[in-house]
Design a protein that fits this description.
GST_UstS-like_C, 9 helices, 231 residues, 2 domains, alpha+beta, four-stranded mixed β-sheet, Thioredoxin-like_sf, Glutaredoxin, Glutathione-S-Trfase_C_sf
Amino acid sequence: MARIMYDLCGENTALRFSPFCWRAALAMHHKGLTFETRAWHFSDKQDIAFSGQEKVPVIVDEDDEVVTDSFEIMTWLDQKYPGPALFGDDMARSRARFIKHWSETQLAPALMKIAILDVFSIIDPKDQPYFRESREARFGVTLEQFQDTEQGFEMLEKALPPLRAQLEGSSFIDGDHPGGADYLVFGMFMLAYVVHDGALFKSDDPVAQWHERMLDLFGGLGRNAPRTGSH
């Protein structure tokens, strides 16, 4: 049986914008694993009911083992498959978990401020009522009130100094070569890269230069991803 990953998509199934699915996909490429992606919409919950939960990514391995949650998938890959490590030992994995939390609490809110209406515009119309209801319940305001591109970029700039400082001294977060920490952070940026028409960074920013290197990994996996707008 082929290895399968259920991957969130837009109305155009070629648009893959989930930060968490990007983390898992990059991690599997890092391990040199082949896999088939299956496009999944928010309303396709029955398609992954076998996993016991309702979110992607979901990995079904060649032996029918099922793994969910991007960080758990990355941990599982290190435990099951030899080759270049994503996290390494328990201490490194614990530090990576801190980076996961930083990216999800500092980067994700800024990127959603910038791009949430872009996401809403490209998802399947059948998914839009769920997306609107669930996000507006979380934010306490409408999507239109929540999006504030200027504020989002201000929030992003406030979040970037630790990442910028790290990248002034090394090519990647994990050093000379990319690793799990890089994928945890880069996956977040792929949401805006896919759905938002506009640059996230100034070209001379170390973060921008790292982002370009990350886009080129694995034969340009990120750079060649289908995008919206005038890209």
